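User: Fold this one for me? It's ABC-2 type transport system ATP-binding protein.
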Amino acid sequence: MPEPIVTIRDLVKRYDDGFEALSGVDLDIREGEILALLGPNGAGKTTLISSICGITRPTSGTITVGGHDTQTDWRRARDLIGLVPQEVKLEPFEMVAKTVAFSRGLFGKPHDPALIQRVLDSLSLGDKAGTPNMALSGGMKRRVLIAKALSHEPRVLFLDEPTAGVDVELRRGMWEVVADLKAQGVTIILTTHYIEEAEAIADRVAVIDRGRIRLVEETAALMARMGRKEMTVTLADPIKTLPGTLAEHGLTLSEDGYAVTYVFDSRAERTGLTRLLSDLLATGVRVTDVTTRQSSLEEIFVGLTNAAETGEAR
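Assistant: Here's what I get for ABC-2 type transport system ATP-binding protein.
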């Protein structure tokens, strides 16, 4: 298992009015992974990223990036980090290549046009080097933001809502960019409100709510552990009520009477499917279709945060 490149221990951020945005956060981010940081508005996502990147000073706790403490050795720690903010703010009249080169210079890195061109090429911006920023599409502008963040060759890249306001096609294009960056060895931490984004590209998911990390788990394992499956049976003829032998299965009858839904745990030794199908045949109900569906990460996430509110999540 890869060693952590970012280590956070007992991180607290408390403001002057007493509000605690982060409450004892512990988190290890592995080198070379894509970690999706999920949470509702106000959960502490931005505060956590800002603390790691040196924008916000924590009240207490420690953060190390590549072994460098962000408080006592902040220059070396910051050199390893690239940050792509949610807001798209670019100098409209500046050329793309110069915009990216300027960001590299801010980190004290030597002028390197060849490297800037390689970064642009990797983001499909190579032919836009001499184009003013204002002439770019919204999706291309977001790629320029990523190029700026990569200009000083960081090992860790933070993407704060990188596809906010982007249509589905451009969003999927951005997923490909993120996958390519991972292939190059860049560690990526992604905050997003698009649950399918985390499900599609993240190696692990961290759920933060009310300033606390509620869960960190491999995405596939989380789906397998907490996802339920639903089997929907479509009937040839509608029924008004469930026959007695079917009622004991805990089925849900659709409003139009044409379908029944059965919820089960696919990992259980006995799912009840065999008995249910046998009972369906025995009642004489005619079936036209059977489909199954697994819970999405969004449904799992809602369940986790609801559990946290009732004190069930720890």
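One thing worth pointing out: The mean pLDDT is 88.
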